[in-house]
Amino acid sequence: MKIKNFHQKIKLDENLSYLIGFIMGDGNLGGSYIIRAVEENREFLENIYCKKFFTVFNVKKKIYFDKFNNSYVAYIHSKKIWNFLKELGIPSGTKSRIISVPDIISNDDKILSSFISGIFDAEGSVITMKDSHHKNGYLRIQMKLHNKIITEQIHSSLLKFGIKSKLYNYEDFSMIQINGKKNGLLFFDKINFEHPNKVKKIRAFL
Q: What global pTM score does this model have?
């Protein structure tokens, strides 16, 4: 799918959809047309996020270490790309409470799957849960967002892929939980993570 008002070679594909999801989760469109992504794992930023960004836009992002937040930041200044990403549905500035799944993404299963993968890589976690019925532990994939609307959209989208999840809405945040090996396998098959730490954790269960 080609996107108007930008270079004709740019298409809404799985790489671009993933980037949109990740930036909505752990990035932003800031002042002076800066596009940021923040992550504790430099390997992930360099080998996954920045490579996808280069594949889509043919530009390299710079990376620096933010010692105050103990995280790495990949960034670039580009009015053209900034406006393009905003046109696709990423709000500028403080966005955590106003983001939603863009309509242009929700219309295609492969595009939607990549978007969900991106936002789970940004905001999701893989946890080993234990209780009296599961002494060896069971898998939980979890994501918290400060936004009820997009959390409910993702919850519904997961069900579209056959993945059952639980949705919890609280005063300050909303949360999705995917429990157990069966749903974990479905998530691994239909969505999956690309973050190396999360891939390693989920594979230990599957």
A: 0.93
Residue 183 dihedral angles phi and psi, to the nearest 5°:
-70, -30
Cα 102 to Cα 82: distance, rounded to the nearest angstrom: 16
Look up residue 118 and give its two tokens. 């991106």
Q: Is the pLDDT of residue 15 over 50?
A: yes
Q: What SS3 state is found at 45?
A: helix
Q: How far apart are CA 177 and CA 11, in angstroms?
A: 32
Rounded distance, CA 120 to CA 126, Å?
10
Contact 45, 65 (CB under 8 A): no
Residues 6 or more apart whose CB falls under 8 angstroms from that of 89 comprise 20, 100, 102, 103, 104, 105
Quickly tell me which residue has 């949109």 as its tokens.
20
